[in-house]
Amino acid sequence: MLLVASIALEQVGGFEVLLARCGLEAIECARQNQPDAILMDLVMPDVDGSDVLQTLRAHESTVKIPVIFHTAKTDPSEIRSMLALGAKGVLGKPSDPAAMAEEIERILES
Description:
about 110 residues, mainly alpha, 3-stranded parallel sheet, about 10% strand
């Protein structure tokens, strides 16, 4: 799913995509690269997305980077929890790779 999403975002949306395969890698990548936004799953092999988001929010260099969760956990209470942690938005899985860039842009503009 990571590769499908990155290809769709690059080819359809014109985004520059940096990949991180786990939560710790995502934190380090965000600190080093200061991306315009982060799209990540809530469930990851080492550190879950909510912990990654809390870590990003605790550091001055990453506190303002918008984070969008791409997750199958789309129960309204789960979405409220992610937004309460500071997520900019939530994209449900499965999602249409061709529409993903447009959905991300919509969330970032809101």
